[in-house]
């Protein structure tokens, strides 16, 4: 059968071929957009939970430096030639142990001369006293004048003063002689000798050697102000805080320390507080100058409000926030079937929070939430703006649906 087409029919066919696909695309795009808008209007499914109340033992970490309780620079207190040292560098020395000997000859001579001067003025003083005694007896019988008695008294007093001054010079000479034998003022480990035997030494020569005590030792460190307050709240003014130190190889020191110094102010530059702990060191394992990791553990459990880190948004610079589900009082859903009860429409509200630290992957919340808040803990990624409607489901259902989508 042969179909005969007119020009008009051919034009109409061409127009249909051109415009039908365009109209179809327009309609399908509109329908798809409408369906997407409707889908976006549908409440997103989320899981909510109350903020946690976690009880933990508070701890804090820092870096500390080992210091000797006593560190003494040994210097020459009198000038002279250094004759001998009586120790080996690096030895452990005892308090009172002889360390150096300065040539004592000139100081021995000074002691002898001072002693002789004391004896001389002692004799003159005693003789003047006897003369004064005789003058006092004679004046009673009017055999001498009063001026003679006065002269005897003045002579006695002058010789007494000379005698007392000589005794002081003698004592000083003995002290200087004693300084020629240099002894250790403390128990400790002696360091490297700075000035060897044969040199002329004096006070301005500087330290001959250093001695540092080894047991006990101190570990000094700084604690951030936030950690300082946290530990303070969980302790009795740091008296019962347990202090541990860790070596660079990861091993912990066997003894725990106690806080024996807390500075009275926060450093304005670093925002931290200087502190110090005392450690027993019988084996000398803690060496002054070494750097250690320091951990402080408070004895009391402290309660904190926490939320999962995964449900928070933001950062430390701009601040953190969470989504909280609340009833939208301006809207409601009327029930169907037997139940005609109106159900509240749920929406999300942004709440800015202040966090201080983390516990078990949860942020400690200082401000911004209450324990009655319903915090979105799953489905956070589907929330795009405040006031968005949501549907609350249980965690198990949410998990199953998420797995089903995969």
Walk me through the structure.
The protein is α+β, with helices and mostly antiparallel strands and 406 residues long. The chain folds into four domains: 43-55 and 305-405, conserved putative lor/sdh protein from methanococcus maripaludis s2 fold (Beta Barrel), CATH 2.40.420; 58-69 and 212-301, Efflux pump adaptor protein, beta barrel domain (Elongation Factor Tu (Ef-tu), domain 3), CATH 2.40.30; 76-102 and 181-209, OB fold (Dihydrolipoamide Acetyltransferase, E2P), CATH 2.40.50; 104-179, Orthogonal Bundle (Helix Hairpins), CATH 1.10.287. Helices cover 31% and strands 36% of the residues. The chain has five helices and 21 strands. The protein has helices at residues 7-41, 105-140, 146-179, 225-233, 395-405; strands at 44-49, 52-68, 71-74, 80-85, 92-93, 98-102, 181-183, 188-190, 200-201, 209-212, 217-224, 242-246, 258-262, 272-279, 291-308, 313-315, 319-334, 342-359, 362-367, 375-378, 389-392. Strands 1, 2, 11, 12, 13, 14, 15, 16, 17, 18, 19, 20 and 21 form a 13-stranded mixed β-sheet that branches. A hairpin with a 7-residue loop joins strand 17 and strand 18 (342-359). Helix 2 packs antiparallel against helix 3. The chain starts with 6 loop residues before the first helix and ends with a helix. The model is unreliable at 35-40 (pLDDT under 50).
